[in-house]
Every structure is written in structure tokens, then in C-alpha cells.
Amino acid sequence: MEATHAGTQIIGTRLGTLAASLIFAVLMGFSALVRIPLPYTPVPLTLQTFVLLTGAGLLGRWGAIQMVGFYLLLGIFGAPFFAGGSGFTHLIGATGGYLIGFAIAAAFIGFLDRKHLSLYRQMALYLGGAIIIYIPGLLQLKLITGSPWRDVLFMGLVPFIVADLFKAVGACLGVRWTRRIMS
User: Fold this and answer.
1) What pTM was estimated for this model as a whole?
2) Fold assignment, 14-35+43-182
3) pLDDT reported for residue 83
């Protein structure tokens, strides 16, 4: 059985997709441990966006959602994969909206990315995926901190947007290269 949509079959079985989803979830968690804390925000700079977008592109439809589900479960049940640690309270904390954004971005990339897309369309898709993470992230940061929107944007968007755009382009190119060598 095909576990991904036509054109991006890299993982060919349901069990293979499940295993790959778990591996990417762990990689995503470890990428969260490589963090650069910034003094004026509760949101650290990490490599999670790169791993998330790459995993979503390679895993496809349901594998991308499984990856984020595994990642969230690992973090909720004790793996220190969330900003500041682990546990359910991080989902409802200042950075919890970004975790929700991960699920939305993974679904966006996993369901829309196709092997036959032009490079520019695929890059736009990955850039859109990176930007999608910010919507629930900034909303929850605003709700939890009660800060004015100007401050929220300086805490949760401005320091990260350029790096995330580079991560999105890198993920796009990495997925394209992997598909090329796997086919």
C-alpha cells in the first residue's frame, strides 16, 4: 500500500511511514534542543522548522501529521522537546501556539507538495508552511503575555522570520534532492 500521495512515494508501506514519522518526530525533538535563547522573548531560535518542513515534504499526507503527533506526545510525556522543557502545560503556555502551528504547517506541506511542482511553486509552498506556523504562535503569545501587538511581533516574529525563510528554502531543496536520488 502506498502511504504517501502519488509522486512523492519515498516511504512505501504504512509501517515504513509510521517508523519514518517517529524518526522525524525524534529528529524534530532533538532539533529543539539545539536552541539559541533570546533575552527578550520566551521563543528560542531552533532548527525545528527545517526538520518539520523536510519531514512533511518527505513523508507526505498522513506521515506528516503522524510526525507532529508523535512529537507532541513525546513532549507531553516527558521528552524535553518543547521550549523550556516538556509536559502538557507547554501546549497552553506562551509558545504553545507554535506547536499547534507545526501541525497545521505539516498538514499543509504534506497534503499540497507534489513532485511535479516547479521549483518556484514548491518554494512558495514551503515558505507558506513556515509562515503558517506564526499564525497560531503569535495569537497564543499575545493571549498569554497580554502584550501589545507590536511587542508580540518583536517577541515572536521579527527575530525569526529571516532564519525560517532560509530553513524553508533549505527544506524545499533538500526534499527535491532526496526525491531525485530516491527515484
Assistant:
1) 0.90
2) Arp2/3 complex 21 kDa subunit ARPC3 (1.10.1760)
3) 77
